[in-house]
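Field: sequence (string)
Field: structure_tokens (string)

Example rows 1 and 2, in order.
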Amino acid sequence: FNHLTRQSLPLTFRGDRIVHNEMYPMPYRINPWTGHLLQQLQDFADQTGFLDFMDAYKGYYNKLLHEQQQFIELDTLWRWLEEQLPSRIDGYKVLFSPLAGKRSEYQLYASEQYRECILFLDNPERLIQQPGSNANKKARLGKKVFDEILPFYQQPIIENHRALIQSIFNKRSAWMANGYDRAPLEVFEAYMSNAIFCLWAEQTFNASEARMIRRQIEKEMLDKGYIRFYAFSRQLISLFQAHEGQKEISGLLQELLQQE
């Protein structure tokens, strides 16, 4: 199922036949869906009455779409990230399925003129049905988006400061609890991406909601062995506030690292 999900974009129905939609390239040079597996997929659709099934449950899937749009304001999050970090994406598309469980990932399709990010996310219904405030649910769903796309946005600023990052985060005992063995850049990426998420929460939710969200992330990071996350995250927020939001995160990184 996960293999099919990752390669589903180039496939579409034309009438009752599954064909290559030509908008997206096949992910691999030799793609199994161009051969006998595509015929097996067609047989599955025919034997199960897949299109009739989709029509019968369209109301349920429309409800999921509405919930996803209600709890993940992707346009707002996207604009905020591109105000703060140098990378640019021209468009997003979100795909999710009740069958996908907790799995999520992203793919980037790029040409010389256009870059589109495809997000494969967890079904929002699972999180929305859990107890908690709407702010907490929005934060949890927003965190899933952050976890997938922040590596793309962070990579250019990491490359610009690679040597300094490695020299600071190479002192693993200062950043990780005993028994946790991770590469310096990997440790930094975890610290930075979660700190950026906490900053986004500060800018997005009211004070009490942001505090609750931040404390949850701080606890999760500590449980994972990131022993200085509290101080690191608070320092990023303090620097951002000291510049009254007029200096983007990519411009704050040098200042943040120099204080470590």
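Row 2 begins here:
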Amino acid sequence: AIQLCKQLARDRIKAGDTDEEAEVLVRTNALQLGLGFTNADIQRWIQEAKPVGEPIRGGTFPLDAFTKEYPFMWGDLLMSGSWTLFSSKPEAGKSTIACELFAALLLGHESYLDQPILHRPDHILIVGPDMDGCQWASYFKAAGLMKETANGCLELDRRITLFSRECPLQLNSVGIETIKRECGKHSNSLILIDTYRCVTDSLNVRENDPSYVKPLRDLMQALASANLQCTGLVNHHSPKSSHDTDIEDAASGSNAFS
């Protein structure tokens, strides 16, 4: 019976289904067969159904085959083309720091928090369902990213795209495609996820379960497959009681993230 489910997963992936679509069908089939299973089991079957790409094999390559560089964007804390987890207790200032960093990157500052600005994005995409538009506007104003114009309007820096609580994105297939489409309009996007819990709360994934990080991996894979140069910053809550713990244990779902 398990082999039938695995074969169904292979068939659906081969047919072009997204992970989410295949998961629904495989779960329904497993229930009909009376199988005991977990979400992690189904996701593992789907991952196992995917073909493996061609590896890099020893041989001769063009001189420019491996010239893609990943310079640091902000000191040695944020590397271009990579993803960084920013974890602290709720209401500890993660969003404030992010917006002030964005201002330093977009407005030509030489440094932020004594760390040099080394590389600048041409676009910042904020996936921020943790706050509504008015709350985000207060952060933008404080950071100098939103200003009043001479004719009495407010103008947000045109290099910023915001999905707030009013138009929330989840890291499901629709949300990932939306992020990919927005980043495809630019050559070097910086993506802020604020917060990871908010963009996964409808996806039936649990913190401290290995599947918790899967939506983020799916996003990273989708962006890489589209050859998009993106940098990611993920704001994530640590438990309010966490103190005197190491940096990995301080993050909710740290077993999955690490």
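free_text_note (row 2): The first strand starts at residue 72 and ends at 74.
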